[in-house]
Structure formats: C-alpha cells, structure tokens
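Re-run with default settings, no changes from the original entry. Doing this only to confirm the output is reproducible before filing.
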Amino acid sequence: MNRSAADDDLRSIAGRNLVSSETRQHTPWWGPIAGSIGFLTVIPVPHVAPSPTLTERSLALFPLIGALIGALLGGLALGLDHILPAGPVAALLIAGGALLTGGLHVDGLMDTADGIFGGRSPEQRLMIMRDSRVGAFGVIAGGVALLGQFACLSELTGHARFIALVVAATMSRWAMLMALAIFPAARTSGVGATFHAAATRTAGIVGTLFVILLALISGRLGVIALAAGTVAVLGCGRLLTRQIGGLTGDSYGAIAVVTETAVLFVAVALAIP
C-alpha cells in the first residue's frame, strides 16, 4: 500500500479544499458538503475556496457523509445479492469501500500500529509513523481489521446488512470528529493539528445530534453502536495520547477503522437468533 507521512495521511487537504488560513471568497452553501465528500472519498467535487469556516463545517458533516458512504455500499450489496453468495459479496464490499475512500483509514491504522508497537518513546513512535514503508505490525493490524470486517459482512444479508453498513460508516466518521474535538494534537503543525483546531464544540454538537438521530431511527443496533463508538474513541484516544502525546492524522484513521469494525461485530451479535 502506498502510504504517506503521518499528518499527510489526511489526504493533502489543501488540495481537497478544506485547509487554509485565509478566506478568498464567500463559501457557497454546498461548500462544506463538497469539502467533506472530497476528504472522505475519492469522488470528484467542485472547487471551493478553502477557509477555516469551511473546514469546521465540513468536519461537522463527517457523520452524514459516512451515512451516505454506508448507503452506497449497502445498495451495492443488495444488487449483488441477486448474482453472488454472501462471501463474495462481502469481499466486493470491502474492495468497494477501499476504492471509494482511497484506503485512507486503513492506511492510518497500519501507520499507527507500526508506530505504537514498534517504537520505544513518543518521538520514535512519531518518526516511525512518518515512514512510508509498511512494517509487520501494520500488516497485522490491517489484515486483522479487514478479516474481521469480511467475517461480519459474510454473516449479514439484505436489510440487516444495509442498516449495519450505514450505522458502521456513520459511527466511524463520527468517531473521527470526536477524537479531533476531545484529544490534543501530537504535533503543533500539519494537517492533523489544523483539523484539531477546526473541530470546535459546535462541529461536535452538530455531528453528535445527527448520530443520535440515526441511533434512535435504527433501534437497538444504533444505540449499542453509539455506545461502542464512544468506548472506541475514548479508549483509543487515551491510549494514543499516552503513547505519542496526542493524535495525528493516522490516529484518526485508526480510530475510524476500529469503530467501524466494532459496530459490524455488534450487528452480527444482534442478528444471532
């Protein structure tokens, strides 16, 4: 996997219309939507003049865009159900998700695992996370996460799988927003630090309200998934803060993958008769 430096893992946001210290022109109403889609997916979006306000509003929409990503994958799965059994459908869903997001979050998980388990000090861990080469711990972490997601998706079908994908994708992007808002940045500069500064209380509240609404609509799965996402954010955030002094771009991706995988396991557990 082609992996960039730790903070650059957030996808060179300057080129994706999210980060800037200056406002060049009035931001259109659809600007935050385009900014959020442009960061979380590889879908081409219209150019919008970047500004701190655009970044803040784009972060607030992370859960909504996550729900749309889950719905796209869920719709794809419903179509594939007519021609393929559950196992191959699960494999294509994972591949489709990686293509749609550019593998951004799994990349962050792999970098984080390499740094946390391969370094002896915060400085050394951060240095390892900047290394573009993948290590053994990264391969193991990425492989386990993808294997877990495949196993879960192989056990889910139809409407239950659609709901699970929407809830999992939503909670994972909400987890990124919460991690940005709650925990300090490990570096004083870079995209991770910029996103941390833009993750205001207002952005967190807006994103959380959407997630609570989704949890109420989706019933027991949504409520338990919200609890699981909260545990993942707080647990991973505190662990990483102790290990490297805060969070980086890679850390946010790692938290997203952990949350998404945990929610899929919850969905499978609830589906057992």
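Residues 62-271 form one domain. The CA atoms of residues 122 and 243 lie 6 Å apart.
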